[in-house]
């Protein structure tokens, strides 16, 4: 399946907003705790897609931009080897109007086989229903010492290709050269950089994104660095210039 619905000029920026489940409301403030605020931001900020869990999709998604429905997830209250099981059917995702399903696989976890098996079923069902399947591949658990080490990130990227993901969401390694190898390892599976916690400055974050793009990434899926910004629309504009219009970091920062 193609990621076409989420791309403009072959690039895409997804606004991720599943952190309420993954981290809890501690990520939020008075404004961005409201899913309606983020839904509007996704539209006015001209994102190429929004990522919701089922509950938010059912209550707040209004069809104004393409939806990625995340069909598994977990809280951060459970410690130990991570496992996130499916919590929404692919059929329901289709009914809500999603153009893709998202699923996190924690490779390296003692439970990775459960997620690999489940993703296999989710991917087949998604393709049967003409939706893309996006894998968040996050190496994690006791066996993974450094989840941004170049060989670990490249392994995550390759895992996305091997398991049939149309796009794989991975962390940035920190430099263009090593991320190039990750993108190459992903083959025809499109690479989206994962945003991560809010960077110290906008400049820092945009430099990371520029690096990922220069290495061949298709785009990014970002949450906190946008909706935790004091001016989320300004950040959205800068990201569009950088990612979609392929401008430099400096040009993108000029509002
Ligand atoms: P951010 O840009 O806020 O990091 O969002 C990307 C994302 O993958 C979310 O989809 C997800 O909720 C979160 O990161 C997972 O974060 P963690 O690394 O703590 O598991």
Word description of this protein:
- This protein is of the alpha/beta class and 255 residues long.
- It contains eleven helices and eight strands.
- It has helices spanning 19-22, 35-44, 54-60, 90-96, 112-128, 150-162, 176-185, 202-214, 224-227, 232-244, 249-253, and strands at residues 12-16, 49-53, 67-70, 100-105, 132-137, 167-170, 190-194, 219-222.
- Strands 1-2-3-4-5-6-7-8 form an eight-stranded parallel beta barrel, surrounded by six helices.
- The relative contact order is 0.15.
- The model has no long low-confidence stretch (mean pLDDT 97).
- The site of 1,6-di-O-phosphono-beta-D-fructofuranose has 14 residues, from α1, β8 and α9.
Instruction: Give Rg in angstroms.
Output: 17 Å
Strand order within the widest beta sheet: 1-2-3-4-5-6-7-8
Structural class: alpha/beta
Uncertain stretches: none
Shape: globular
Helix content: 40-55%
Distance between the termini: 36 Å
Overall pLDDT metric: 97
Short descriptors:
255 residues; binds 1,6-di-O-phosphono-beta-D-fructofuranose
Summarize the structure.
This protein is α/β, with parallel strands linked by helices and 255 residues long. It has helices spanning 19-22, 35-44, 54-60, 90-96, 112-128, 150-162, 176-185, 202-214, 224-227, 232-244, 249-253; strands at residues 12-16, 49-53, 67-70, 100-105, 132-137, 167-170, 190-194, 219-222. Strand 7, helix 8 and strand 8 form a beta-alpha-beta unit.
């Amino acid at each position: 399946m193609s990621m076409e619905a989420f791309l403009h000029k072959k690039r895409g920026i997804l606004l991720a907003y599943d952190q309420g489940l993954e981290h809890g409301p501690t990520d939020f403030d008075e404004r961005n705790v409201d899913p309606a605020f983020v839904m509007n931001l996704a539209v006015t900020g001209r994102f190429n897609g929004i990522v919701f869990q089922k509950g938010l999709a059912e209550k707040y998604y209004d069809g104004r931009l393409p939806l990625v429905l995340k069909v598994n997830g977990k809280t951060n209250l459970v410690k130990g080897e991570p496992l996130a099981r499916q919590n929404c059917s692919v059929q329901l995702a289709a009914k809500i109007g999603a153009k893709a399903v998202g699923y996190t696989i924690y490779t390296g976890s003692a439970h990775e086989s459960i997620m690999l098996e489940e993703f296999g079923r989710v991917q087949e069902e998604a393709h049967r229903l003409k939706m893309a399947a996006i894998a968040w591949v996050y190496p994690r658990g006791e066996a993974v010492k450094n989840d941004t080490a170049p060989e670990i990130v490249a392994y995550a990227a390759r895992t996305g290709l091997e398991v049939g993901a149309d796009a794989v969401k991975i962390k940035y390694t920190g430099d263009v050269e090593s991320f190039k190898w990750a993108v190459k390892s992903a083959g025809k599976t499109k690479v989206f950089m994962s945003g991560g916690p809010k960077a110290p400055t906008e400049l820092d974050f945009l430099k990371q994104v520029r690096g990922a793009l220069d290495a061949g990434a298709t785009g990014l899926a970002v949450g906190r660095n946008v909706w935790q910004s004091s001016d989320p629309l300004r950040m959205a504009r800068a990201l569009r210039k950088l990612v979609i219009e392929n401008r430099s970091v400096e040009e993108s920062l000029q509002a």
